[in-house]
Amino acid sequence: MEKEMKTITAVPSHPSCPREIRQEIAQLERRLRTMGLDGDCAYERALSQAYDALLLQKRRQLAALREAGL
């Protein structure tokens, strides 16, 4: 599980291809579904908020690529 978390949080800061971004979004959404919406502890709630922030960032990045015609 630790390896999976590193993969999820080690997000490149430069634009990726749309396919990679969609895969990252799907991975984050799967992880959130696995955790559930209301975490059992403060750690899970904080992790859920971090995933939500990453999802927002990835969705904005994907929208920017679409606007740029990529």
TrEMBL record:
It comes from Thiohalobacter thiocyanaticus. It comes from the Bacteria. This is Uncharacterized protein.
